[in-house]
## 1
Amino acid sequence: MKNFGLIGYPLGHSFSKKYFTEKFQKEGLHDCTYHLFPLPNLKDFPRNLAFQESLVGLNVTIPYKTEVLSLLDELTPQAQRIGAVNTIHFKAGKSIGYNTDYVGFKNSLLAFFGAKERPKEALILGTGGAYKAVKAVLEDIAVPFQSVSSTTKEGALTYDDLGKGEYHLKNYPLIINTTPLGMTPDTHSLPNIPYEQLTTEHMLYDLVYNPLQTAFMQKGIDAKCWVKNGLEMLYGQAEAAWNIWQGK
């Protein structure tokens, strides 16, 4: 058997097991299985994972995308640059870390733009592991951005700064939520930004994909903004991870 899985905590929100299980069935891969490994902490990684000898690859989700780096044998140059890992390949006795969030988000974001002019500036809400891939993409496609954090970090605004003076939302036509706020089961939560400043020119991208329409997105819909969830990104990063595990 070839075993794959997802580590993080909690994992009740994840579509990954369903996605890969259906993929294996559709493609007739009867020797492949996908498991969820909810880990309250990483101190025993990977000793507490089942099926170690036949474990080919893992996806990594909240809150371990940065914490897992120090536990891996190797990192790809892109994962090193981004500073976060969401895909692990076990190969030749080594654990190798990749970041496929980058390609999943980049392709999804460019599709979101479509034929529209790229926004002149963006806000990235949250500064965790998912933020790091989003940051790298915006740097590479030349969209200036400002990060926002609930805690004071160098270079990041606080949520209390938003809406005032130069930080009025009119100056940030693209707003990306990289936090888990609004994710199942806490579907009523959302980032604390001045939603009354949204206009029809705004684009709201939520990396959350469960539920498919988040409270953050609903605020955008109410203001007649363009909105998008993270499901397409999920599929994109999952397929990129699968290609890595297959040696493609």
## 2
Amino acid sequence: MPTNGFTASKQKEFIFELVVTQGDITPYGSASFINYVRWYNIARDALLQWRNLGLDEALRNIVETEASLCDIQYKREAILQDEIIIKVNSSDIRQDEFTLLFTLIRKADALLISLGKQKIKFRNFKTGEILNLPAAFIDNVLKPIEIDEKNSLYKY
């Protein structure tokens, strides 16, 4: 049995939990499309706490997060009162861009609800300039949760 391949037990991730509320569901009883995107963004923002980005003080107040891609794969419905675990991993880390991979799982029975993918950049909203990722952010936030997307269940 090879030891250098990807296994779930080797995977590290950032974890965020939420509960599906009345405001999240449609009249048909399941979560609406926009809530999946909103949940990914909430988990992303929780991961990207500005204090962890490694930006100098002058840039902190003029940086915005830009998601240039957002893909979603639905596996099953999220319904009212579901407790959901969102696991976030990084992938494809570049000088000025990185990818976040999202796995939404129902907490009660570990059923896969959704997979998501976002390509993220940081932009100076005053000048429009795309910023390079700070080394401290890569080393302290992205690298600890990095996986090789080709060796996991994300197939886009």
## 3
Amino acid sequence: MKVSLNKITKKGKALYLAYDQGLEHGPSTDFNDKNVDPNYIINIAQKGKFQGIVFQKGIAEKYNSEIKKSKIPLIIKLNGKTSLYKGEAIARQLCTVKEAISLGAKAIGYTIYIGSSHESLMMHEFEKIEEEAHAKGLPIILWVYPRGKGIKSDTSKEIMSYASRVGLELGADIIKIKYGGNPDDLKWAVKSAGKTKVVVAGGPPALESALLKQTSDIIKAGAIGLAVGRNLWQNPKPFDLTKKIQKIIWK
């Protein structure tokens, strides 16, 4: 079945609101009394008219009625891990494609840590997920994050482009990669992704001016947008910042 990105893009571009950090980082690292509540995040996504909101299965299930009322496309991450284990990175499947569809997902996400000694396990698992999702016409966003003893810099030109190419070779519709700050490097990564679209991770909290400059670089390099989390829902004025980012993406 042909997969369309129309439900999770606008005019071919996108701004996604990511909120899988509770599992990945833990609440004490990223949350405060306000943004620890998923309803606060759903409200930002709704008022900001994002092209998608990224949740793990549990929040997608427990807050399903609120998500549906927001009319923001739901993207469910199918795998994940905590930050407590310090060995070679691996994230195994936690939610099925069938469950994601039943919860109203318009797309699914999955992370592969290339360079990890466990990368082949995640690739094999992803192949099964991709086959099922695409059979149902569901787009796949693949988080491709370089990790492992052999990775010296996860945002070098070589590694960024390798991450992008992995997404293309594995059949992802959109890939999410980290950006090292060099627009020319990102241009090569986007070219390496071929027909697979590229979004860039928002990353850890940064100065607003730096985030806006990064957004401009990202769009000029050919990426379709961002998947941003902490930089928005930790910001005291998330709606103002959202408008500024959107103005750059859709100018």
